[in-house]
Amino acid sequence: MENSDALGMDDSPEVIAIDAAVSSLRTYFSKRPEMHCYLVVDPSQRDFTNDDEEAQRFRQLKRAIVEVMHDAFPDNHRPYLVELDLNTPEGAGAFAESVRIAFEDRRPMSMAEGLGQRVGGWLASDASLDEVAEHWGRHVLQYNEEGLPCVLRFYDTRALSLIWPVLSQEQQQTLLGPVKVWHALDASAKPRTYSVLAGSRADLSLTTEQWQQIHRHGSVNRALALYAMKVDRQPEPSEIAAAVAAAERAEHYGLFDRDDRVAFVESALAWHPQFDLHPKVLQLLGARAPDKFYTAAVSVLTEQDIVEIRDGAWYERLSASSPR
Fold first, then answer.
1. Which residue, 132, 136, 279, 308, has fewest beta-carbon neighbours within 10 Å?
2. What InterPro entries does the record tag this protein with (predicted)?
3. Stated pTM of the model
4. In what order do the strands lie in the sheet with 63-65?
5. pLDDT tens for each residue of 234-266
6. CB atoms inside a 10 Å sphere around CB 199
């Protein structure tokens, strides 16, 4: 009975999810012996492979740095790939530890504190480690719609989950390059795969519209992290979609302060996805002076107003009266 109770104490949702992910990934690679398993590491916030506690697992493993060809980008922030041989105790141990860390970094408090995503997923490729790193190095530095250098942080799984649907299939294939399947956690911290069967192009050639969407992702992910901490769970896909849509509307309302845009997106998550269509909110936004923050404009809302917005009956009436 004591052993049973002890085991039960470890059966938290996170532990169950980690075990399931480890099992699923090991099964995938065991069925494809021709595929290498490359761990993606983003050391920009914290580098777990240099931590005293974890370094021993990774010290002897082969790695390749993804070069970011810009003098202003710190060398110690460059992402890198680690080759994991799952048939060896060292590789299997490092692999299991990397899965644990990936889930740990998705804890709501960790996201809200801005501690970053140290693990960027696990790549399946029959190309060499250096080939994959060199390919990513050709695409990680992009030039935005104003011609300015911009690091496309696709190696951050929370960023990737928002960038991927913005890209065309050709651009997705260009990003993957020699990677056949990219295993990672999605925006809801659920395991997913990124792969595509399409022709590729020489470069990503992101359009102005795509850049505009990508620029919003920082506000979206910040709002989602704060919301996840408040509700103590991962965001649902519908909430992620609502956050993306709200970030675009925030721009249309002329909100250009980052914290103000984050607050607007948070309102869409906490109150109602279309909260800004509520008559009182719409009136406040319409009367807002260009130099007045959104947060100041809506600070006059009462608790009863917010209860009414959350209830959503007003939106049902609005939808029913709209011409079809």
1. 279
2. DUF4123
3. 0.91
4. 63-65, 80-84, 36-41, 119-125, 179-185, 191-194
5. 999 999 999 999 999 999 999 999 999 999 999
6. 9
